[in-house]
Each structure stands twice: as structure tokens, then as C-alpha cells.
Amino acid sequence: MKKLLVIAAVLFTFNAYSQNFQLHRDFERGHYTSTFEMFKPDKYGNTFTFVDFDYDGGDVSSAYYEIARVIKTKKMPVGLHLEYNGGTSNAFSFANAYILGLNYAKGNKTFGFSTYAGYKAFKGVDKANFQVTCTWYYNLFDGKVLFSGFADLWSEKGDAEALANFRVSNDDFVFLTEPQIWYNVNDNLSVGGEVEISNNFQQSHKSYVRPTLALKWNF
């Protein structure tokens, strides 16, 4: 399942509530994906969530959901990262996973990044796993163009039968990155797209490069 992420780090410097809706056309798989995202900071950290829906032939064929909470005050050098993700499709279910780790973010109105490393537990899987994630943003041409994205690296170790139930691989590492570029037409509308680059994601020992064109509405 394609994972879309408008970077929380893009927003933490502005200390403002933000949400957006995206519609992507995936050319390699020939379907549309919609994404709704929300980011909300507060004095104890921030909350980020998104939900993806894939559409085949006009019908919803799969759904994927993530929610993450960073607990951090101004006096804390790093934050505590808590995350849940999971989903389902017409063909299989995505692994329900829980992540507990440490988060570090830094940035300004032009450039910034956020990264965390943590323990990752797949529901029903008997071995411990990990995930490392980095997100970034770079505002160009006085904010008219945004280059952003994320990169994930995680392990999938455990009982082969349990892992197979979630279409994940046994004793493998999975890499997924989705750099995005957006042209901000105005404060609400952006046009652009992304390129999903993955290895061992959903299918073992396979790599993919999947470009999209997209529209984004910022609320």
C-alpha cells in the first residue's frame, strides 16, 4: 500500500493546525489514491494522522491508516514517538504495527527535517523489529515550490506463516521512500506529484519505481 505523508516537520515550525486532501494518479498501477492528512501541535508535542484509499474501477480497493503522537515540551531535547499503522484491501490485510521510539526535529521556514528510530511490533509476530524514518522539506522560490518527502527503513523478522498473513517478508529489511514536489498555485491549491521507490515492500525481493501526478487542497 502506498504510504503518503505530508511532512509534519513542514508544519512544526509554524505551530499551527493544518490539514489537506490529496488525489494521486498512479501510472504504474493504473489507479487513483486519495489521502487525507492532519497535523496538530500543542504544548505537549504534536499529533499526525493520515488515511489512504486506493480506487480500482471507481470502487475502494484498499485502505491504509496511520496515527502518530510525539510527546515533547520545549525543555526536552528529543521527543517520545508513539505510532500505530494498519489497513486492509480486497486481497489481503496490512500488518497492524505499533512503534515506540525517540524523535528529533529541527527546521525553519525554508528547510527542516524530522527523524525517529524505534521498536516496531507487528501484531501476532513473535520477534522484535525496528523502524527508522526521516522526513524533510525544502521551500523554494519564496514558497512557491515545496520539495518534501520521507524515507522508511524497517525490519520484518518473525514466524514465516504469521508474516505471510500480512503479505510481508520473512527476515528481510524493507525500504520505502516517496519524494514529493509541489507547485503552490495559491494558499489552498497545489499541483505536483511523487515517486514511490521501494524494495521488499509488500513483495519480497522486488523493487519498484512508481510515479504519480497529483492535486492537493490545503484547508
Task: Give an overview of the whole structure.
The chain is mostly beta strands. It has a single domain, classed as monomeric porin ompg (Porin, Beta Barrel). The protein is about 5% helix and about 65% strand. Strands 1, 2, 3, 4, 5, 6, 7, 8, 9, 10, 11, 12 and 13 form a 13-stranded antiparallel β-sheet that branches. A hairpin with a 4-residue loop joins strand 11 and strand 12.
Total number of distinct structural domains? 1
Q: Number of DSSP strands?
A: 13
Largest sheet features: 13 strands, antiparallel
Distance between the termini: 25 Å
- Determine Rg (CA atoms, Å): 17 Å
- Quickly count the helices: 2
Order of helices and strands: HEEEEEEEEEHEEEE
What is the strand content? over 45%
Q: Which word captures the global form?
A: globular
**Mean residue pLDDT:** 87
Topology:
Elements: H1 8-12, E1 18-26, E2 31-42, E3 45-56, E4 59-71, E5 79-89, E6 93-107, E7 111-122, E8 129-140, E9 145-156, H2 160-164, E10 172-177, E11 180-184, E12 189-199, E13 207-218
Antiparallel strand pairs: 1-2, 1-13, 2-3, 3-4, 4-5, 5-6, 6-7, 7-8, 8-9, 9-10, 9-11, 10-12, 11-12, 12-13
